[in-house]
Amino acid sequence: MSNTVLIIGRSGSGKSSSLRNLDPKFTFIISVLDKPLPFKGYKKLYVPIKGWDDKEGNYLATDDWQRIIKCIQMIDKKRPEITTLIIDDIQYVLANEFMKRSAERGFDKYSEMGMHYWSIINASMSCRSNLLTFFLSHNEIDANGQSKVKTIGKLLDEKITIEGLFTTVLHTQVNDDEYLFLTQSDGTHNAKSPLGMFDEKLIDNDLSLVINKLNEYFE
Predict the structure, then answer these.
(1) What does residue 29 show for φ and ψ, rounded to 5 degrees?
(2) pLDDT digits (tens, 9 = 90+) for 34-80
(3) CATH domain 3-218 topology
(4) Spatial contact of 110 and 152, defined as CB atoms under 8 Å apart
(5) Is-contact 68 87, C-beta < 8 A?
(6) Cα 77–74–52 angle (5° rounding)?
(7) Exposure winner among 15, 82, 105, 207, fewest CB in 10 A?
(8) Where are the domains of the chain?
C-alpha cells in the first residue's frame, strides 16, 4: 500500500508552489485544471505525456476521473522511476462533473460523483509502497467553523470523512507573507500527522521537506 497525503488550503495559500523543489525526474503531476504552476521554468520541467506508453512525459491535464485512475495505475505499473505523484485541485473532479451534469434530475448523480472521487483516492492507496501521492485540495468552512477539505455540499461528508482516509493531512497557513504547512490541528483547521514526524507545528511549505520527513518516519 502506498502512502498518501492530503494538503488543504484556500486558493493562493501555497499548495501548488510547494512543488517548486521537487525533482521532476521522479515526479508526475496530474492537474485537474491544467493551470500554470506558480514557479519559473515549470514548462521545461513538466512535459505532457503523449500516450499511456510515454516514458518521458511527467504531466497530465484531465478532470476525467477514469483517466486519472488509469494514469495512477500506469504510473504504478509502468513508471517505477516515479516516486512522487501530485494530484492538483482534486476538488474540481467533483465541481466540474457537477456542472457538466447540472441538467440531470434526481439524486443518483450525487452518489455517482462521490463514488468517482472516492475511487481516485482508493486507486492511489492500492499502489506500490514507494509511490507517495499528494492530493491538493481547496478548503471550505463547515457549520461548526472548522476548515475542512472542499466537496459539493453534503456530498461525501455524510458518508465519509475525507480527512479520515489519510494518515497525514497538512493545512496551508500564511503568516506575515510566510507560506507554511500546519502539521497538527489548531482547533479550527483539520490538520494531522503521526506523532513525532515533524519537530514543529508549522513548517515551510516545501513538499521535498515533507517527503524527507515521511521517508525517515516510515523507513
Answers:
(1) -115, 125
(2) 999 988 899 999 999 999 999 999 999 999 999 999 999 999 999 99
(3) Rossmann fold (3.40.50)
(4) yes
(5) yes
(6) 130
(7) 105
(8) 3-218
